[in-house]
Each structure stands twice: as structure tokens, then as C-alpha cells.
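Notebook, student rotation project (T.W.).
Task set for the rotation: take a protein with a known small-molecule partner, predict the structure of the complex, and write up what can be learned from the model alone. Partner molecule chosen: zinc ion. Sequence and SMILES entered below by T.W., checked by me.
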Amino acid sequence: MKCSEASVALSKQYDGGQLSLSEKKHLDEHLAVCLPCRNFKSQLQEITQELNSESEISKSSANQDQLPQSTKDKLSQKLDKK
Ligand SMILES: [Zn+2]
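Predicted structure of the complex:
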């Protein structure tokens, strides 16, 4: 497997796509011998984790917007005391 193929396979994997067994095997074999592609993989992992935590934050802030103003005030008062 070439680096270009490995990066395509990695992007596919972290994009929620499924790799075939032979793709996975070739990718693992390539990652075992190729440091740049291992770095690329860890970058993808970090980005994926960041995206996941960002969507968690936007979910909770969206819920807060639905609360009535009085509830929000109580909430911020509680937070201020901490
Ligand atoms: Zn490579």
C-alpha cells in the first residue's frame, strides 16, 4: 500500500466509513512500517475527538436556549456561587 492509499483509507475510516477486511489488513501493515502515516492517523483521531466534544457542547447550549429565562437566571446564579 502506498502512503496516498493509506491516507485515503484512514480518512474513510474516520469519516465513519467501513473498510473492507483486506483494506484494513493492508492499512495496518502499512502503518506498522510508516511513521508519517501513523502521525496522520493520530491527527485524525484528535480531530475526530475534538469534533465529538464540540457537538456535545453545541447540544447542551441548544438545550439551554430552550429553557425559560427565569430558569436560566437561577442556573447562572447557582453557577456564580460556585
Ligand atoms: Zn505511509
